[in-house]
Known about the structure:
Elements: E1 2-8, E2 14-20, E3 33-39, E4 45-52, E5 61-66
Antiparallel strand pairs: 1-2, 2-5, 3-4
Amino acid sequence: MRLRLQLTGWDRRTLTLTDTPCPDCPRCEGEGGFAYDYGDHNGEYAGTEWDPCTCWDETRRWTLLRLPRIPRRRRADRDPWSNEPPF
């Protein structure tokens, strides 16, 4: 198991500890899986599929710390329709 710290979430920021792919894996060469393109019935590009490698469990993660939300300060004394610069 190879662990790394990761910052997740945009609405509720969380510091998590996640597993990473094995860099010496002979099957995926450290990428964690295999990506392959596929087409529709006309032969046109329709998307990319991802098959994870067995050296990595992408669902393995632990929450370490929920980061507090820092409220933005609002300036009530400033007129939003003013043409004057803020300085």
